[in-house]
Every structure is written in C-alpha cells, then in structure tokens.
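INFO  loader      accepted 1 record
INFO  loader      residues=350
INFO  predictor   begin
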Amino acid sequence: MSRNAAVARTGSEQALAVYQALRSRPGATFDQVADRLELTAEERERCRDELVSLGLTAFPVDTASLDTPSAGAAPVVVEPDVALLRLLRRERDRLQERLAATSRAHTALEALAGPFLRAGATPRGEIEVEIVDDPRRIRCSLTNLTNSVRTAVHFMHTGSVRREELPGELALDRQWADRGIRIRAMYSRRAASVPEMAQHLEERAALGVEIRFASVVPMSMVLADENFALLPTDPHDPSSAAILARGPGLVRSYLALYEYCWTAAAPYGEEEAAEKRGDGLSEQQRAALLMLASGIKDEQIARNLGVSLRTVSRLLSEVMQELGAASRFEAGVKASRLGLLDAEGAERGI
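INFO  predictor   done
INFO  writer      dumping tokens
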C-alpha cells in the first residue's frame, strides 16, 4: 500500500483498517500490519490505544516490562459483537457503582442535615437543609412550589400516585404547561400496569409532560429548577421523614442523579410491553447463555455441557425465544440488561 493511500485514512479509519487486517491475517503481529499500512509511530500508538479501549484487541504483556505490550506476539482479536457485550457489561457495572456512591452520599447528607448545617457550618444563604416529618408541611412546600418554579420541575416516583392525588396533579400540569414550564416524570415500569394509572399517564402526556419508565427507580423525588429538592430520608420507606433542600450547591447533585436515571429510562410509548425476563430458562439454557455472552464458540459450549452441536443450537434458539430476541447478539444484550449475566444471575443457575 502506498504512503499516499495510508495518509488518506485518519483517526478511526486507520484503526478500522488495522483491525480488519489483523482479522484477515491470523498470527500477524501489530507491527507487521502497521508496516504494511505504512503507519507512523504516532499513528500506530493511536490505533493501538483505540482498539484496546474498544475491547477489539488485547495485547500480550512483555514479561520484561509488565506494563508494555509484547512487540513480537500476535494480538488477540475479539469479535465485534463480543466486544460490544463486554462494553455493555462494563457500563452496567459503572452505573451500579454510581448508584452505590449516590447511596453513600445520601447517607452522608442525612448526617449533614442534622447538627452540622443547623450549627451554621454552611452559610444559610447558599444551602438550606431540614428534616420534615409533618405531612402538612410537606404538602405546604409543594403548594408553594407551584408558583415559585421558573423553568423546570422533575418528578421521580417509585410507585403509583394515590387516586385522590391524580386530579390535583393534572391541574398542576395545566398551570405549569400554560407558563411554559418543562415537566418531567419518571415512573417504575409496573406503574403503567395499573389501568387507572395508565389512563392518568396518557392524560399527562397529552398535556406535554415528558414521561419515562425505568426498571429500577432509586427513590421518590421532586426537583425544581436548581434550587429545590424534596426526597425521603429512607428511600425504602415511603412513610419516612423528608429531606427538604434549597440551594443550587446541593440540588445540582440530585439533578445529576436524575439526569443519569432519565437517560437510562425508556420514553413513554416506546417501552417494551410485557418484556420477557428469562424466568423460564433452565439451568442448561442459562449456562449456554453465559458461555455465549462470554464469546465461547458453539463447539466449546457443546464440549463444556457434554452435548452435541445440534443440542447447543436448539438450546440457544430456546434462549432467544424465551428472551424475545431475534438474534444471538440481541439475546446477549437483553440478558446483560436484565442482570442474567451478573453474580446474582449466576446464583440463579448460570
């Protein structure tokens, strides 16, 4: 290949050319492929870093320098679908770590909301936090919010709204919509399975409320602009006292959590109806699914399970049907999203 042709490729195109060459030439080293494509030292380093970060290649480590890839050994080339599944699992783990960190921050906030803030550790004009256990005061705070909100209000519900509160919620939606206030509401998926709640959600959506559904909603929450937050002291106990926070320095942290959950939730009307969750999978099917998601070929799966290739094909077809997947790759993605590939899933039979 001429140097002019190599120069024409930039960035990801060069990395793609290297990846395709490595796949088509098993046993070739990275430097051999780079030489053939006439890449400079800088281009080689960039392509190597990009392929590693995407999980498409793995390089043996030089035993003389544990942090340096071995130049004389062929890299391990990973299939794109396997690399994508691994990336998805990595992002899921990051989300779980983020939620765990948020839970720890929530616990710390409870301590700060007590003696420290009341003692004046933070200037009152910047952040105000109080614990409210009187339901009347909570309702009063929400009523005052009706007229004070200026740009946006965000709701997070762990369950359905009480029947007697539905008309009032629609009335608030109309007031805010008339004033151009952005309204967002996030619900647990099971809320839409209640007929009366489903009708209420349809009416809210008609008024312009942005609605999304999530498999897991961490806590009930009300946020307004960047200055007001109302959430429970115990996310697992709806009857617990509430934390009432004012001031952007604190509310922005809760808004960041809301945005993270909002991005992962499904928009109203696009959520999967009666999503299959793999509860009917047998131990053998779960084992085959786990090995498939790990990138193991059918032949090795058959040897591991002590069955024929034909049986493996049947098992994976049954897995796809149970998960409502149109392909093996989709089955792996759904299994990852449903937690069938994590530690808990393993305990259930994988």
